[in-house]
């Protein structure tokens, strides 16, 4: 069904539902003066119907504005039906247990594009360096490559340390926070340049990751490198991909704002992604904690790979399964 027909068929029901919610917030005296758009006993049925409409709108890729409108009605209806407290902690909890995953799934095509821009160049440069090792120096200087080899050498006191003068776990946690947030910010804010800087940031980081990984493998340090990165890579790379997806979405709005002026269109899209950006920021903090306190430990490779695989599976399962039990 086309969106226009869908809206024509159900817009009256949505309007009545919205009027019912507005009336419920009035004082008792004002409610007596305001007629009910439908009997109170119909509210649960209409709420379930609205959840179905939201699921259909998302599944059929209807316009972002319609999905946001229905999502807002469903959220307010849920609060009215189940008596949820409209406070900050409640909203944060509800978003954490399902809203974040739903937002990411709604952005799935932008997430896929961002992942391809990151991992595509990484795999390509790894293959190229495997064939011709000196191609690594087109991306990094010989001193940078040597520095990475030293960081992951068998003689290093702990894996992955990038600054000997700031080698405590807490100081490295601060370093990783700054580094990860700076990468994610460039990917997201680059959307304001019609997505060009977002694309550049994703490709450039993909190339850098590929150069480091392949050169360390060629130096016989692949096990050390993989035992270090596997623990935090799920959260860190996941957050970078999500920030890139948000940047690409902003960039598309710059190029194609639709029927609205470019400024209002950008504000609307940016506002709709604020919660998702906060969610990926939490992912970056989790990644930094793992990278600072777990990743440098010299444990057996099977242990590091097993724990790292579990840590990679956690965000994947969350984004795949969370928030699917409310009709969306």
SSE topology:
Elements: H1 3-24, H2 28-33, H3 43-59, H4 64-82, H5 88-106, H6 108-131, H7 142-151, H8 169-189, H9 196-218, H10 222-255, H11 262-272, H12 274-293, H13 301-321
Describe the overall structure:
The chain has 328 residues and is an all-alpha fold. It has two domains: 84 residues, no CATH class; 214 residues, no CATH class. 75% of the residues lie in helices and 0% in strands. It starts with a helix and ends in a 7-residue tail after the last helix. About 2% of the residues have low confidence.
Structural class by secondary-structure content: mainly alpha
Uncertain segments: 162-166
Task: Please compute the radius of gyration using only Cα atoms.
Answer: 24 Å
* Strand/helix succession: HHHHHHHHHHHHH
Calculate the terminal CA-CA distance, rounded to whole Å. Answer: 18 Å
Major pleated sheet: none
Q: Given the C-alpha coordinates, what overall shape results?
A: elongated
- Count the helices. How many? 13
Mean pLDDT across every amino acid position: 84
Strand content: under 5%
Number of domains: 2
What would the keywords be for this entry?
single chain; 328 residues; mainly alpha; 13 helices; elongated
Brief overview, please?
This protein is mainly α and 328 residues long. The protein has helices at 3-24, 28-33, 43-59, 64-82, 88-106, 108-131, 142-151, 169-189, 196-218, 222-255, 262-272, 274-293, 301-321.
């Amino acid at each position: 069904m086309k969106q226009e027909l869908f809206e024509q068929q159900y817009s009256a029901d949505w309007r009545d539902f919205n009027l019912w919610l507005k009336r419920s917030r009035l004082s008792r005296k004002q409610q007596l003066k305001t007629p009910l758009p439908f009997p109170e006993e119909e509210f649960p049925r209409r709420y379930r119907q609205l959840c179905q409409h939201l699921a259909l709108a998302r599944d059929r890729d209807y316009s972002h504005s319609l999905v946001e409108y229905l999502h807002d009605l469903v959220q307010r209806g849920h609060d009215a039906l189940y008596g949820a407290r409209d406070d900050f902690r409640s909203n944060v909890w509800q978003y954490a247990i399902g809203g974040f995953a739903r937002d990411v799934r709604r952005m799935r095509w932008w997430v896929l594009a961002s992942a391809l821009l990151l991992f595509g160049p990484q795999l390509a440069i790894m293959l190229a360096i495997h064939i011709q090792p000196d191609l690594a120096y087109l991306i990094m200087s010989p001193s940078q490559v040597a520095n990475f080899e030293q960081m992951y050498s068998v003689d290093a006191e702990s894996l992955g340390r990038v600054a000997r003068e700031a080698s405590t776990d807490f100081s490295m946690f601060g370093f990783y926070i700054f580094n990860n947030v700076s990468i994610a910010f460039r990917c997201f804010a680059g959307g304001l340049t019609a997505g060009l800087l977002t694309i550049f940031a994703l490709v450039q980081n993909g190339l850098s990751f590929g150069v480091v990984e392949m050169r360390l493998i060629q130096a016989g340090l692949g096990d050390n490198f993989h035992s270090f990165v596997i623990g935090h890579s799920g959260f860190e790379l996941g957050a970078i991909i999500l920030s890139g997806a948000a940047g690409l979405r902003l960039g598309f709005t710059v190029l194609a704002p639709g029927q609205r002026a470019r400024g209002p269109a950008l504000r609307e899209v940016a506002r709709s992604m604020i919660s998702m950006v906060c969610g990926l920021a939490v992912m970056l903090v989790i990644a930094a904690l793992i990278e600072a306190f777990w990743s440098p430990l010299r444990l057996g490779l099977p242990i590091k790979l097993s724990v790292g695989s579990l840590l990679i599976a956690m965000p994947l399962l969350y984004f795949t399964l969370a928030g699917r039990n409310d009709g969306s």
